Amino acid sequence: MNKYFDVTEKVFDITEKYPETLDVFASNGFEHLKNEAMRKIMGKTISLEMACKTKKVNLEIFENKLVETIRQTRESVDMGLNDTLKDSDGETRMLGVLPCPVRIPLMESFSKWLKEHEESLGTKIDYELKAANIGVDWIRSEIENSDADQLADLFMSAGFDLFFDEKLMGRFKKQGVFKDLSGFERLNRDLDNDRVSLKDPQGQYTVFSVVPAVFLVNTEELNGRKKPESWEELLSAEFERSVSLPLNDFDLFNALLLTIYKEFGEDGVRKLGRSHMRSMTPAEMVKSNIRNTASGIPTVTVMPYLFAGMVREGSPLKPVWPKEGAIASPIFLLTKKTSEERVKPIVDYLLSPEVGQLLATNGKFPSTHPDVENGLKEGQSFLWIGWDFINTHEDLGALIRYCMDLFYDESGVKR
Questions:
Q1: What share of the chain is helix, strand, coil (3-state, %, to 5)?
Q2: Phi, psi of 304 (to 5 degrees)
Q3: I need a labelling partner for 382 at 20 to 30 A (CA). Which of 21, 177, 256, 332 fits?
Q4: Whether residue 70 is found in the same domain as residue 114
């Protein structure tokens, strides 16, 4: 039981006490709760536990999402921060999601910067910067219902499907709506070198950080098998039904699917499906050696690099940076070309060495800023699908859906 609510409590009582959870409910299949009348009628008759059973939503995972959202919001309030600033006269609109581990320090830094530059900006700003665990459906719905003129001036988030799906940002990309305002000739050497380059050759998209996907190997579960040190070894028959994959972290999972598809083809995606054992939250990941369940203990967990560093000394869980490179899930910064003059100061702040170092240090999300020290060791390279792959596929969103079909056909997991 968490300290905020019990799963046997009525949905209405939880949302009444913690209104910040409404977005989480809505983005996980409970859209009707956004309607106040439905929230009062249905929410008072059904517990959280029963609601999850009805929608076939994993209760433990969903409870963790709610708790994280409440915790993040309460911390923001305690620090005098706000993830939303709405001004009816605001000329410039900014939408985005921030990785949970760095959201609080980023919001604190951004709020301070806004106060210091309020007069010199020359524009009033509306912004909504929510925690990543809430998801991006609230941004998605706006994009689907907007034309180029109605789009926000600046977007910040991870997500291949959000930014390249033809039904979403993909159609605006083809219209040349966006412009890379970084001004960087070259990105950080960790992310712009002979092996990999995250700099958009078309000058439209800006990547300002990445989430690296690595392995956490439970050495007690190897049972004579060699510890996997590469993606190729992870996809071998030895590790079928032995791997925990981040199915609920859509941005990271989509990056995994696309990269495995590019490197190993359809057969690789099918093998990834056969490797899958169960999904876990970050909290479960770093305790997976002691949290046995009916579905067993995974031998390998694919997770963000940040969480792999939280393993206690002496644990049988050992982080592995894959030999081919950690799969890179990029965090994008999109700015409308027509808004360049108004948003350039905001972009300069977001792409500053200070913000880049905060990302790299606090969250272990390597920055693309050329002057940031990401603290990576020799051999810690990246596996990135590349701009050629992105630009030669007509609809990356359709490719993601195709790869998901291949994966789920082999995984045995119900979608």
A1: 45, 15, 40
A2: -60, 145
A3: 177
A4: no
User: What are the two backbone dihedrals, phi and then psi, of residue 155, each rounded to the nearest 5 degrees?
Assistant: -125, 145
Q: Tell me which of 383 and 118 has the higher pLDDT.
A: 383
Q: What does the pLDDT look like over 87-103, one tens digit per residue?
A: 445 689 999 988 877 88
- Please report which confidence band the pLDDT of residue 174 belongs to, taking 50, 70 and 90 as the band edges: very high
| One domain, residues 176 and 94 | yes
Residue 199, amino acid: K
- Residue 364 is part of which domain span? 84-210+330-380
Among 57, 78, 99, where does a domain finish?
A: 78
| Rounded CA separation 139/165 (Å) | 13
Residue 5 lies in a domain: no
* Residues 129 and 203 occupy one common structural domain: yes
For residues 277 and 298, is the Cβ–Cβ distance under 8 A? yes
- Among 16-25, 255-264, 290-299, name the one with the lowest average pLDDT: 290-299
Question: Which residues have a Cβ under 8 Å from the Cβ of 357 and sit 6 or more positions away?
Answer: 367, 372, 373
Strand segments (E) across 262-304: 300-304
- The pLDDT score that the predictor gives to residue 123 is 81
Is residue 257 one of the residues assigned to a domain? yes
Query: Residue 55: which H helix or E strand, with range?
Result: helix 48-55
Report CA-CA distances (Å) from 388 to 116, 200, 373, 384: 41, 10, 27, 11
Residue 93's CB is within 10 A of a number of other CB atoms, namely 21
Q: What is the pTM of this model?
A: 0.78
Do the Cβ atoms of 276 and 239 come closer than 8 Å? Answer: no
**347 and 283 part of one domain:** no
Distances (CA, A) of 5 to 48, 58, 61, 179, 336: 10, 17, 15, 45, 42
The three-class DSSP label of residue 380 is coil
Q: Is residue 394 part of a domain?
A: no
Q: If pLDDT is split at 50, 70 and 90, which confidence band does 291 have?
A: very low
CB within 8 Å of 152: residues ≥ 6 apart: 93, 94, 95, 142
Note whether 100 and 205 are same-domain residues: yes
Spell out the residues 6+ positions from residue 290 whose beta carbon is closer than 8 angstroms to its own: none
